[in-house]
UniProtKB/TrEMBL annotation:
SMART domains: ANK. SUPFAM superfamilies: Ankyrin repeat (SSF48403). InterPro entries: Ankyrin_rpt (IPR002110), Ankyrin_rpt-contain_sf (IPR036770). This is Ankyrin repeat domain-containing protein. ANK repeats lie at residues 50-82, 116-148. The keyword Repeat applies. Keywords: ANK repeat, Repeat.
Length: 184
């Protein structure tokens, strides 16, 4: 009836156990097994109770081959979980450069974020992941973008007492300013 709220369907124990095995395959990097299931109809954007997709879990656990397979099978690279984290931010947090590359090569937006506005560059900067900061900047990440609280990546890095990333971010920001001035 219109206007009534509907409860989501209840799943039986076997369905819940199967979904749990699928999420464990993503966490464990079992790309071939997961690919077979996706080929048989498993949604590549299957999401758990925390909003984590198979892709986010594979990215967080550093499995670049599983990430590449899920992207090739249609997983949304920019979808965020209930905490506003994207697969790219998860890989950046963990320092998984090969996963970051797989995500970017697979179509992830370099400045994608959740509702909090926190990008992968901000996350990498906070945790002093200098190699990933360099990679994201080389792929076009905006060092001057602000999150929902008005903080830039450099602000977050300095708050977390990161050592190497603030200098890189300051240089990238200055380079953007100089480039903008020369184009006028």
């Amino acid at each position: 009836m219109p206007g009534e709220t509907q409860n989501p369907p209840a799943f039986d124990e076997a369905t819940i156990a199967f979904a749990g095995r699928c999420f464990n395959l993503a966490r464990g990097g079992y790309a071939a097994e997961l690919e077979q299931l996706v080929a048989q109809g498993l949604p590549p954007n299957l999401t758990n109770d925390k909003g984590d997709t198979l892709l986010i879990l594979a990215a967080y656990h550093g499995h670049h081959e599983t990430v590449a397979m899920l992207l090739a099978r249609g997983a949304d690279p920019d979808r965020h979980n209930d905490r506003g984290q994207t697969a790219l931010a998860a890989a950046s947090f963990k320092g998984a450069e090969r996963v970051v590359l797989a995500l970017l090569d697979g179509g992830a937006a370099v400045d994608a974020c959740g509702p909090d506005g926190r990008t992968a560059l901000m996350v990498a900067a906070m945790f002093d992941r200098t190699g990933i900061v360099d990679l994201l900047l080389a792929r076009g990440a905006d060092p001057d973008r602000v999150d929902a609280e008005g903080r830039k990546a450099i602000d977050l890095a300095m708050t977390m007492k990161a050592y190497g990333t603030p200098r890189r971010l300051a240089a990238a920001s200055a380079e953007r300013i100089d480039s903008a001035k020369s184009q006028r």
